[in-house]
Write a structure and sequence with these properties.
By secondary structure, the chain is mostly beta strands. It has no helices and 40 strands. Strands 3, 4, 30, 31, 32 and 33 form a six-stranded antiparallel beta sheet that branches. The N and C termini lie far apart (49 Å).
């Protein structure tokens, strides 16, 4: 979102427009209602109501327990477009940030900190140390290896000079330094930051930021960094030129050895409504000093719509990706995961897919659908990896009713990126709809939601209007039984990679092998965690699954030392 006059970009040319702003007029995903920003308007009136009582959802699948929804920071102000991160040096410390509206055209950004694992929160709906008139949103937060918190927002200003604000906190996100410019003289959109949070990394505590600059051709993907926690910033690097097509929805992440990865929704042309045509990607092995040439690592059929489409109740919805890297000590250490929405080939409804790479982004797996099968539309995915157990978590919205725009927030979890288990996170559904077309850009209802995870616990964070005002909520999702088989915190978790189950899918007989140890017992679990079959004696390498219903199951093997090994299978 920017405080500028409405513009239209055509082949790198900028044309002034006096028409009412619509996302169909430009690929920029603004929040502000630009055409009315300087005009008088009736007073903005919120409609808060008492918090609706909530209770945890019954388990939909094996091993994920849903906690009750937590209203992060109740207020009368709009909160939307939330991001969240966990401090892995103190996992009870969570930090979230969201765009806020404090009055008619009074745009700001909130910060919210928890010191008890997301049960209670403190903070404010306005940033510290930055003038309110210069905050244009797109919040992003991260933690460094030493627990320093970082927060960024697009900075307001005259057209083409906005850049981004940078702030840091040394007390878990309760207090923040005065904002400094990380970059200036750039027409930023969808900036995202991260920090290298591995203490043994050669680039530990480096800060990285990426964005789209719509002053550069049709929209270039840029990057810069700070190696001294925001005292100085590097000159920007152009990762993807805006000369042909454009890139948008950038995401930056780090690997276990200091690798830096950037991805974005790539567009071969500038054609409304700007559906993505492929996944853009670049990587750095020297702490962001230089990058590989940008490339499209795989094509995908985007799902982006603007406010003129009825698909999401005249709400604009993007098709931007989210990325995470496994930095655990488990079998998939170093694996890069990307979650993204893609149009179903049969009826074009939006599905959430995940692909992964085990060779630093050179080659990628096929896309796997992770959302619930009955979702009419699934959108706004965000992905993270639990760096203790290697569990991959994805949060997303879903239309889970046969008709209408009723929406729930779901999480999907996986140990391998191919077998996924879903759990509803929201205790109350909401109706997807524009927040307020008078104060906000037409169709705006936030452009992303977030999730953070560590030590077998995930914290999906989203916005909904269950109480009459769009506010931010979170829930605690705990993975503790099959198929995740989490042991107590100080005990090692056995690696799934040494357990082999073939064939997969299986029809009647499955063959098991477990390298380096001996099998003591084998259990087969239904998706809801109920035991389907168990074998304690005889030949445990060849087992019959005849007579079982078709579906996804979890094979759980205990060895002669009591360690547990898991593998998801499909029974046909």
């Amino acid at each position: 979102m920017k405080k500028i006059h409405s513009v239209v970009y055509l082949g790198g040319m900028m044309l002034l427009s006096i028409s009412t702003f619509s996302q169909s007029g430009s690929p920029i995903s603004l929040q502000r209602r630009l055409d009315k920003h300087d005009q008088k308007s009736s007073l903005f009136t919120q409609k808060p109501s008492p918090t609706i009582p909530t209770k945890p959802n019954a388990s939909l699948t094996a091993g994920i327990t849903d906690g009750a929804d937590v209203h992060i920071f109740p207020s009368s102000n709009v909160q939307a477009e939330v991001t969240v991160e966990i401090n892995k040096s103190n996992p009870q410390n969570l930090l979230a940030s969201a765009n806020t509206l404090l009055g008619p055209f009074a745009y700001n950004q909130g910060f919210y900190s928890s010191s008890d694992g997301g049960l209670t929160w403190a903070g404010a709906d306005a940033l510290q140390g930055i003038s309110a008139s210069t905050i244009d949103g797109d919040p992003s937060v991260s933690f460094g290896a030493d627990g320093t918190a970082y927060m960024t927002t697009i900075s307001g200003g005259s057209f083409g000079t906005n850049g981004y604000w940078f702030q840091k906190s040394v007390n878990g996100g309760l207090n923040w330094t005065a904002g400094v410019k990380g970059v200036s003289n750039a027409n930023l959109d969808k900036q995202m930051n991260t920090s290298d949070n591995i203490a043994t990394s050669p680039f530990a505590n480096n800060f990285y930021n990426t964005w789209t600059d719509f002053n550069s051709g049709n929209g270039a993907v840029d990057f810069n960094r700070s190696t001294d926690k925001g005292t100085t910033f590097s000159t920007k690097i152009v990762l993807r030129s805006g000369a042909v097509g454009f890139g948008q929805g950038t995401n930056v992440q780090t690997g276990p050895n200091g690798e830096v990865y950037v991805c974005w929704a790539d567009h071969t042309a500038v054609v409304s409504p700007y559906k993505a045509t492929g996944m853009g990607f670049a990587s750095s092995m020297n702490g962001g000093v230089s990058f590989t040439p940008a490339s499209v690592i795989f094509p995908y059929s985007g799902t982006r719509v603007d406010n003129t489409s009825s698909t999401y109740n005249f709400t604009r919805v993007n098709d931007f990706p989210s990325m995470a890297v496994d930095k655990s000590a488990k079998s998939h250490k170093g694996r890069i995961y990307i979650a993204y929405p893609e149009a179903n080939a049969v009826d074009q409804h939006s599905e959430i897919k995940v692909r992964f790479s085990d060779n630093k982004g050179v080659t990628w797996s096929a896309g796997t659908v992770v959302n619930i099968p009955n979702a009419r539309q699934s959108f706004f995915p965000w992905i993270t990896v639990d760096d203790k157990y290697g569990i991959v978590w994805v949060v997303y919205y879903a239309f889970d009713q046969a008709t209408g725009y009723a929406t729930n927030t779901y999480v999907a979890a996986s140990l391998n990126g191919t077998t996924w288990f879903n759990q509803k996170a929201s205790d109350v559904s909401h109706i997807t709809a524009p927040i307020d077309n008078t104060n906000f850009a037409a169709g705006y209802a936030g452009d992303y939601i977030g999730i953070a995870a560590y030590n077998g616990v995930a914290h999906p964070t989203w916005m909904d209007n269950r109480n009459g005002t769009w506010q931010v909520y979170t829930s605690t999702e705990s993975a503790h039984t099959a198929p995740f088989n989490l042991l107590q915190e100080d005990a090692p978790v056995a690696q799934s990679s040494v357990l082999k189950v073939q064939p997969n899918p299986v029809n009647n007989v499955m063959h098991l092998s477990l390298s380096g140890t001996n099998m003591q017992s084998v259990k087969l679990f239904y998706p809801n965690g109920i035991l389907a079959k168990q074998w304690n004696t005889g030949d445990l390498t060849t087992l019959s699954v005849a007579g079982l219903k078709s579906g996804v199951y979890t094979v759980s093997v205990t060895d002669n030392k009591g360690k547990i090994y898991s593998q998801g299978i499909i029974v046909q």
